[in-house]
Records
---
Amino acid sequence: MSHFLLEMDNVSKTFPGVKALDQVQLQVKPGEVHALIGENGAGKSTLIKILAGLQEADAGAKFFFEGKEANIKKPIDATLKGISIIYQDLSLFPNLSVAENIYIGRDSENKGWERVDWNEMKRVATEALRELGVEIDVTMPVEKLSIAKQQLVEIARALAFESKLIVMDEPTSSLSTNEVEQLYKLINNLKAKGISIIFVSHKLKELFTVSDRFTVLRDGKYVGSYDKEELDETKLITLMVGRKVTYERRKEKSKVGKPVLEVEGLSKEGNFKDISFTLHEGEIIGFTGLVGAGRTELAQHIFGINNPSDGIIKISGQQVIIKSSEDAVKKGLAYIPESRQTQGLILNQSIINNISISILNQLTNLWKLIVRKKEVDLANEYVKTLDIRPALPHMSADKLSGGNQQKVVIAKWLSTKPKILIIDEPTNGIDIGAKTEIHNLLRRLASEGMGIIVISSELPEILAVSDRIIVMRNGRITGELDITEATQEKIMNYALKGKSVQQAPKYIVEEKISQGV
Amino acid sequence: MKAILKSKEMSIAAILILLCIILSYLSPAFFTFSNLTDVLKANAVLGILAIGMTLVIITGGIDVSVAAVTSAVAVITGHLMIYLPDSFLSLLVIFLVAPLCGIVFGLINGYLVAKVEIPAIVVTLGMMSIISGAILYLTNGVYVNSRNFPSIFIDFANAKILGISILVYIFFAVAALTWYVMKNTVIGRSVFAIGGNSKSAIRVGIDFKKVQMFVFAYMGFLAGIAAIVQTAYIKAIDPNGLIGFELIVIAAVVIGGANILGGRGTVFGTILGVILLGVMQNGLILAHIDTYWQKVVVGSIILLAVSYDHIQYKRAQSQLSNIKVEA
Amino acid sequence: MKNLSKESILGLFLVGLFVFMSLFAPGFLASSNLKNMMFQLPEFSILALAMMVVILTAGIDLSLTFVASLSGVVIAIALSSGYSIPMALLAGLLVALACGLLNGVFVAKIGVSPILVTLGTMILFEGINLSITKGHSISGFPSAYNLIGNGYFFGLVPVSLVIMIVLIIVTTVLLNKTKWGRSVYMVGSNPIATLFSGINTSRALMWVYLFSSLMAFVASVIMTARYNSAKVDMGSAYLLQCVAAAVLGGTQIQGGYGKVIGTVYAVCIFQILSSGLNLLGVHRSIVDVMIGVILIAVLIINYVSSQLEKRKSIKEQAKSVA
């Protein structure tokens, strides 16, 4: 009889094009809080999906729960064994009542025609919420609740299931400080009852507060499992990243040219207010702030996807009105969105078609017909200069790695020869080597005279590429710093200043990394 | 209370009431017991099918084979009826065979959608082509009148309770049954859950495929019932009688407030949509307006309803994503 | 066999079917039968191409054949009340474009899902048509007009067939060689990324519905000229067959993929199947059954082969990693 509640061994998962997990293991003791940690793309979420029965591991994986071999093929298998998963984006039904949301799923298979026991449902739901120490009307539809309360409903669901193992994926990301405290208390209560918790978070401090043991993943591989006492933040970061320092921060401001983009008093109700700044040729401005500060919205309004309600935009000194994204491209703007897969690329199309899409007008003959050869030449040129691998321009974009996908998006925009490039979370989900490569590329473009806005939540990234840093909070600019005077503390101060943290910072690991190092 | 008043069902009901008031003013024949029950009787088939379609649409599917399936079941049971003796048992046999046939058709659709993962519109389009082709081949399109039916069936078709045709009761029974299933059974709640958030539904262990199978099978079941009602209503077997009817069924569901992208819709809303269509048709006849204009009106209502709905939805979405800008 | 595209396999199937029918269907190669097929093909394939382009954008146009019949009725009324042929055609064209514009406004500008919009406009257009014609057919055109449907070039090639071939080429060029055509595929694959790439997706969609109504207009001219009359249900039998032809031709109903040649092959297959089976003495309605069976069978085969491929590629990967 093993002394582990959960034992996963030799777990691999292959997707077409990537090996997401490679012989990973995870052991969780009864009544412990186990931190699962790793960078974006390290394989945490895949591992959780396998545990949840949403995905099946490749053949050869061993899986024991309560000492018995467990066969989890479907989500219901996990639920029935006593494994609950609380996903970051929650698994709620907005149109159903709180009680139903808590109760749902327990009506296991083959009971389709059974009558729903509304009284029992309400009783279970009320009790679970009481255990959680919150009062919510169980008859209310969930869509009427705040995000924080919705998450409590989700946690109550796991409690109502009397789960032996609860997986919490970034559970504190939308809770207030008070609620976070309450959650910690609750976790301790659960521990006392012998319930185990797998806690996934990017906030290292938090992990050290709640966790007993750590399992570290890196690039889909198992790095190791450690007791809390064996680790400190520095050591943990080294394990996650595989080396010590990530980026070198910039020390000096580079020389800049004429103003290329001037924004004065730009406002849009419900998004941002009174935004003014000037971007110069050859300059990189880093826009940072908490997730939800309005940076992405600002970028999309400048790029013409939405129209601002007030304010002036000038490009190269000329006042302009940008009506659409098409218009923006004509005026020399380029925008690389945050989500490569859904907003940046057309995944089922070839690298060629993805690169040429924004300048098809220029790849035509006298008859306005697209000349394929010009497209292929264009793609080949960028495949070469940006070192896109594999160098197969006819391959569809979904088969590329994250870093190479990002290069394709960058190639698309470079081909338009923009004066201004706005890039949103440029290295999200890209491995470290490729990150540095993209930073160098951005610096090179700036030195060639392009004005660049980098939006990023990663402070080290901001410090590594920017000449100037603008901090936003709740839709307003709260601070502006030259790279020479900027420190992480100052930036954080602007990002959080004078407010109780309603939306807790969702900074990703690297920020903590450099604090730790 | 405010929520109820603002709900979509209430706005359809308001339009319906307004229409009724106008019609009673225009024609004294409108607001009579016999006329109103006739409207219900004439739209019982539409209502039954629309109720089934509501469930399919809530889960994000669509079924354009309903009219063909209904016709097929009507042809099968109609021809079966010719050989049945004039006994109460015959009625029972019909009420067993028809829904069963319908369920079989529905399960085929459901299997292809859920297990083979072919888009619902393509599956049901193909099934429609197959079934209606087969019906035409087998019947040669020949209309069979009631002379060959057992008289018990004719008695059933003419039966009235409290002066209301039994077909109307069947319609309401179907509505009540469906309402009960949707409200109080696990499978019914699963339909709503999938409609609300299919990703969550899969995560909490609701078997999406099973629910898809269920909604198509249930649609087939109701098509079987509708086949009996249709045969009883026209007292004949008409292999061509329902050609193109599937789109009217979908129109009724859409007017009733269901969202074709899945997620929203209620049995009650659909019934209102059906009655609205029925009353409009009836009203145009009573008001001596050319019936051809009915389609113009229905088409316009669909366009208005879906755009209004879409604009509301977009507004709600953008409000959800708003940031609280500091003053 | 492995390196053949979906479309080429379909083409081979078409050739095989043609050979089969030539061998076994009595009188299949007779000039009267070939003539019949040549005259029926154009209207169907033009409508099917229109439907395919809409499906490429992840849409569907249920109003397509009703746009055709409304435009046909307007042409018929104009002709029978003595207007010249060009004037009548212009009137028909304007009506068709107005219909397309209406669809386009709801789909592209307001953003309502195409199936709902075109369901509504389909009923609307049918209603307008009925209100005009009271369900009667309108006939009596100048014989010069009928030549479009029945005439030959050089006494050999039907005029309508030439129109069809021109439109097939035009559609191919538009889809593959123009910015609009590329946008059609891109919007069908990922509308957000397309918008974010600086493409005016709303305008591209608008043109899609205008294009489909334009094609409906041409089909309506051919049909009215061939039948020498116009009626509300003219061509309505083609509606769902067009969807079936596009899907059989390899077009993805979720949008983003599909080739003109595939749809043309599929239309030809349907045509040969129905003529051939008819000559073989098979009941006309069995053709519908066959079309449905082929449609579903093709998708089942697609599904099974894609499952097999997925399994294979993962296995290979596992091997190469190990």
---
Amino acid sequence: MRTTLTERTEPRPSLSQRLDRMGEARFGLLLLIPTALVLLVFLALPLAYAAAMSLFRIELTVSPAWRWAGPGNYISLLGERAVRESLARTLAFAALTVGSSVSLALGAALLLNEPFRGRGFARVLVLLPWAVAPVVAGVLWRYLFHSNYGLVNALLYQAGLIPAYRVWFDSAPVAILIAALATAWKTLPFLALIILARLQSIPEALYRAARMDGAGAVARFRHVTLPQLRGILIFAVVMQTIVALQSFDLIFTLTRGGPGQGTVLLSYLVFINAFERLSLGTAAAMAALLTLLIVLLGGLTPLLIARRPRRERQDG
Amino acid sequence: MASAMPWLRPGAVYALVALLLLWTVAPVAWIATMSVQPEINYVSVPPRLRVEQTSLRWYAATLAEPEFVAALRTSTIVATATMLLCVTLGALTAYPLARLNVPHRNLYLTLSVTARMVPAMILIIPMFLILRGLRLLDSHLGLIIVYTAFLLPYVIWMLKNFFEQVPYALEAAARMDGCSRLGALVRVIIPVTAPGVVATAVFAFIGAWNEFLFGLILSTRVAVPVTVKLSSLVSTTFHSDTSLVAAAGMLALLPPVLLVFVLNRFIVRGLVEGMKY
Amino acid sequence: MSDQRSQERLSRRSFLRLAGAGAIGAVALAACGQAPPAAAPGGAAPAADATAGAAAPASASQPFAGRELTLFSAQHHAAHVKDVYVPLFTERTGAKVNWIEVGGGDVEAKYAVFVASEDASADVLIGWEAINAKYGPTLFEDITTSVKPELVAGLTPASKRAFTFLDKQYGMPLDTNMAIFMWNSDLYKAAGLDPAVPPQSWAEFVDHSKKLSGDGKYATLFTLGDANSGFVTFISIYNSTGGTLLSPDLRTLTVDDQYGLMAMEAIHDIFVVSKVADPAGVTVASSIEQGKIFRAGNMGHYFAFPNHFVLAETPDQSQIVGKARTGIIPGIALRSGSVNGLEGYAINRFSGNKELGMAFLEHIVSPEVQKLVATGWGRPPSVQAIFGDADVVAKAPQFAAVQEQTKYPSPRYGSPFYTDLAAVFVEQTLAVIDGTASPQEALTKIQADGQKVIDDYWAKAS
């Protein structure tokens, strides 16, 4: 089975030989083929189909037929009040989520960086929410704030902070706040760990230098720690924005869009259009709009990855 | 590791950590208490905190239902296989993107990550049609392939990141000892990035386990994941025992949580040390 | 040099082998997880009637022996339809039934995909008034001419109406479930009210409620947790005013009139003025939670579905066994009015198995099954004659109330634009409840927005 170079003159080179002689670029491309196939059939193809859908009027309550609409779906979307309101809600939700997630994660990372007994155990326990499915998380938080058997009501009532059990999901702003908290809860592990990573790689030398310059503890925090964390915090903000804008499973089980339309975010609006109104063309157009929003706000991330390898190259 | 906040008294640190852990664990702990008590205990107006008449019978009832057990089995099989397939294909893809001189490699990664920014639910109908054409509806294999396709962009991104951390020097040394490029991948890069690879594998497992909407639409009987089964229990309109739903919810989150706890050292090391920014 | 080359070669091959093994391992895992296919799931184009390996030849007593039917239903039907009526069907016809279920709230998502992909995998589908009009034209088979007329004639008018859209019948109802009035006799006694007599009018209802509320407890609870339940709440009150919301051709909404005002002011009264309705209702979307609070002894009275009575009498589901009483809903202008929540089944228009599907529809309205619906499940039957059956009368006292209730209006106003219309109603009702709109303002808005929803739909449909 072993062929050597001297058998190069054989009329048909074996697979191994052909692999050897392939240049780096070609071999690399060969390795990419299986993944490319999977992604083309199961990602690119559905995307193309969905993009096509957005150019047609497809009302499944009337008939399964596709009728050409061109940019019609997009134009009518921009005029719809429901879309504008949902957009506002989505941005508010994103801001709340990102604000609470990143600050909580920063706090958690700073804490988990401190030396204390049981730190290893704490770091493990913190991973718990990451393993919980968004669907399950929605159920958990719905029960937490349940008006009849929720822990929050029970605790507040026992502590005498409220005179009677309170209904939490009856006001849209509160419902959105709870949804933001639930998302923050779920994403804390990942964010906290990547911030912790950066924290731990801040060189001791910087702190020593600051100390020698007479900087106190607080000053060192402000002038060494925080600036060093700037990059990772921006990364966390971008990642969390993408997560918030795509959020659906959690809202689906937490509030089903309620009260009324109060927690209908753009992703939920896509769902309503596709699966409740059965208006596929509109849903596809809305999905395209949402994608645009996500790409705009989150598109910074791929640029961040692209830059890193070049830096690494220089470091050898 | 030096303390970044030396002004914090030890007592304050412990208190804050306790608060953090409470925040993390409370929702799950509450469902756990709901899952071992009769509903009447906690459906009261006003609500009272008490734990009595505990019993495991709701867990027994949930596990006695063959469809729920089948759903657990389905999720386990699908998530495990997705994890394996993702890591395999992911490593195959991340290596050339990280190390080989493939033209336009940054473009590929950017494209695939951007593709993932589309809200997945709009892709459900075409996905249904494709799987139906391939006769893969309501099958484990169908779910595995779909989940893999959706997780690959992130998996590749993460693995590429880890692979790039390995200093060229290590690889160069191996090459000088007569190793081929791929030999270096298998014998040097992957062992060195093992924590990161494990972290990525766990990420893929959890991603597959957590999937809901695709599982709902693409499966009907044979390959129903546990997330879909749980949602059907919750959205039932005429008969539901909340303790039963709580028990089912606890069972549904057990496998990924166990996995995370068992592999926690790798995950923490992988995420903390493997990702340099 | 050649050694290095051969090492490289081996490395590349062994590497590729490893990768292949990994991928194959994953696929093998998948294959071993696959249960042996019983029936062909997810069939593509509608095939001719399946004659899959006829085990026993079809005979008069087992006309469909060897055939298979795939039934798509909801989780809450499992205990009765799947466990009882289906085995009976198999016994009678010899056909094997494949049961598929999803949660009630997830049914629509699946139906949307079925329509979009013209899916033929399920032969019989579950339906209820709120969705029948939406999926009738595109997913359910029109059985107006193929169904046996005598079966249709025997149905209660309310149940027949629920499965009819624009004069076409799209399925067969399983029951005539509609809301009735239920109260806790002990709580009545404690409030100084006659424990055996329900309020005879809406005004009395509010009056009783004031006596039953207090100390953080509310006399009643209405569900407004999502578009569907909120709309149902509005209709359950509106239907006793004597008005008609939608024209029969489903093109005109009339809510901004004296009837609408009566209903909206009633809602305003119980939530804002007299404060006898639990504000938590705006987060409750399912009647089951309503029932639970009642069965825990924490609610004086409410608009309940009849099978809640069965639950109230079940010891491990209720703390008020023996205390629940049933009657008809106290009306505003009419003596009474209700809203129906009945369910049934339809044939999938893309199915290749319609004959067998029709056999199943006939089965569920057969006397045998209808008696089980009444006595076993506790739901009012869809077949009129069963109400008079001695067994039923003996075992289901709550049906006396139902029979009386069926005399009064109870339309659910199902339509293709149901979800959007319901959303409009709920939005404004919530505004009335939290005080940001007066009843009249809400009605004006509903009239404008609601009519627009309808007009938009008909514009699309042309």
